[in-house]
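Q: Hi! First time asking for a complex rather than a single chain. Here are the components, and I think there are two in total. Is that enough to go on?
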Amino acid sequence: MKILAIESSCDETATAIIENGNKVLANIVATQIQKHRLFGGVVPEIASRMHAEKINFLIDKALEEAQMDLKSLDAIAVTYGPGLEGSLLIGVTAAKTLAKLLKKPLIPVNHLHGHIYASFLEERKPTFPFIALLISGGHTQLVLVKNHFEMEILGTTRDDAVGEAFDKVARFLDLGYPGGPVVESAATTGNEKAYHFPRALIKEKLDFSFSGLKTAVIQKILKEKKEHKQINTADVCASFQKCVIDILLTKSLRACETHQVHKLVLAGGVVANKAIRAAFTGMTEENNIELFIPEFKFCTDNAAMIGAAAFVHYQKFKFKKKNYMVKVNPNLSVLCN
Amino acid sequence: MKLNLKSLTELEQFAQKFAHALKKGSCVTLHGELGTGKTTFIALVGKYLNVTEYITSPTFTLVNKYQGKMEIYHLDLYRINSETDLYNMDIEYYFRKKNALVFVEWAEKLESFYPQEYLKIEIEFGENNTRIFQITAQGPKYEDFIQRLNTVDN
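A: Yes, that's all I need. Here is the structure of the assembled complex.
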């Protein structure tokens, strides 16, 4: 079964063609970072317009890479939430139009499931049940995945998402956009013990809080500036990142132990951070937990992961009729299929 | 009115009073640097308006909606860069809501989209990790509000 998948929930316009859920025949991501960099953030209106400009080109490009034509597709999959409404609409409209014209099933996919299913693109696939740590610009959640599309939220952020904390710290230090990679690269030469930042809620069960950490970093910088001290950006970044890692490791381990599940899946754009990957590899080895991390290119937003989730979704829910009534949902929860 | 809030407890006490003085159809704008506690304040006010879920940062989502004692819209303009963006997100739609309560973070970006009347809260860092709240009424409706808030105070 060959599925064309379309993703346009936030920054990236992406298309992919996936065969039987794990063979990636094409995976195209049009990075919009160049344009956004000028503004220091994601601009929704601009993002929507860029998606509209690129989507047809990206669909053609995917078909070309997979060396096939539209008629040999078996289904069309698309992200319908969560994300920015205007951006989501571009992808959904394109997918609906194609599915209807080709008379093929339309498979709506939850973007967050896409991130979790990125691990199913690997040769070594997770088996159920497993714990998923979902970390991105807009999300920070620990999810117990009992079976395909049967999930339970174990913990969530009470304020800011991890990716947002990286972005805001980067902006405060004038490091540029996107915050994740610039902080990570600055941190490589820094001393992670130079500053001690608070590990909020570390003793509380499985919820997260990153707003206080962001504020602590900002306060520290302001204080040093006031005292005319030289701010060592690398040290600030290294200490901040170490703090984030400590929190993520502690909560993930606690989730595994509390629920007696010794399999952990990392998901979401923040997993592209090398220091985070290394720390999780170490922690899971020490604690006999099986770790699943997607390849770099499947961590940040992409359409291959949407195709992977769509395949299983289609197998499990077997569409009785071709339903083209897909509506975008900007606030979609990980619990919705 | 001007306040110097010395701890999270003091902030919460003030948020409680603030929540009780609020009426439907109000618009509150928040101004202040990263980390001054705009979202934290709104989350605490929400708590006293019977919102049971976590009120999280809308930086990435732009708008979050909650149902408490009344409908609450939490807007964040941090990522907005032009009036065209505001027009495209149909910002005026939220200001027309007569039965809802609207909070706007990074409201200085509203420029010509400011509602006719609103309550302005400016937050600054004070000494020793305190926060200075400067609250001003923009329009007679909110002068009444500040008066109510002062009455609760006594």
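A: The longest strand of chain A covers residues 23-30. Let me know if you'd like any chain examined more closely.
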